[in-house]
Design a protein that fits this description.
- The protein is α/β, with parallel strands linked by helices.
- It contains four helices and nine strands.
- Strands 5-4-3-8-9 form a five-stranded mixed β-sheet. A two-stranded antiparallel ribbon has the order 1-2.
- A hairpin with a 5-residue loop joins strand 8 and strand 9.
- The longest helix has 19 residues.
- The protein is globular, with a radius of gyration of 14 Å.
- The termini are far apart.
Length: 165
């Protein structure tokens, strides 16, 4: 694990911390590359786990509707690009799945879940949603301490539909 310092969760209205992470093809993505679009950052604990699969497939199935309102979904986990590739292919995901394999971004966003599934020192992302506006500011955040809880998809759609940019 990296020595990235843990920060607090970004406040609503604050600038979202930028990052650079690889996708399943090792292509690097920066949050700042998406400036001008609404972003749904969906952090999930573990590729191919039941709740994560349900969540990412729900985003897959609603992607066209979100795109109609100018939004891009980006999934992020601590799983490596190879595991994320299998997950993406198995679930036919149609948006970027990025690998925070060094745990830097989950630290930047203050969403580290310690000891996932009671595995000592296996730290993953808390299931979290951040909606970032076209100016790079946090418009919405939802964070669960319980990895079995899914986000409120209707609330996410509502925020996307009603945000200005």
């Amino acid at each position: 694990m990296s020595n990235a310092s843990v920060t607090s969760v970004p406040d609503i209205g604050s600038k979202a911390p930028d990052f650079e992470l690889p996708d399943i093809s090792m292509k690097m993505h920066k949050l700042s590359d998406y400036i001008g679009r609404k972003i749904v950052l969906a952090f999930f604990p573990a590729a191919e786990s039941p709740v994560c699969s349900t969540e990412m497939c729900t985003f897959r199935d609603s992607l066209d509707e979100l795109k109609e309102h100018g939004a891009q979904v980006i999934g992020i986990s601590i799983d490596g690009p190879f595991a994320n590739k299998i997950f993406t292919e198995n679930r036919h995901l149609n948006f970027p799945i990025l690998s925070d394999y060094k745990h830097e971004v989950i630290n930047k966003y203050g969403i580290v879940m310690k000891d996932l599934a009671s595995l000592k020192d296996y730290n993953a992302a808390k299931r979290s949603i951040f909606i970032i506006d076209g100016n790079g500011k946090v418009q919405y955040r939802w964070i669960s301490d319980n990895p079995m809880i899914e986000p409120n998809y209707q609330e996410i759609k509502h925020v996307i539909k009603n945000s200005k940019n």
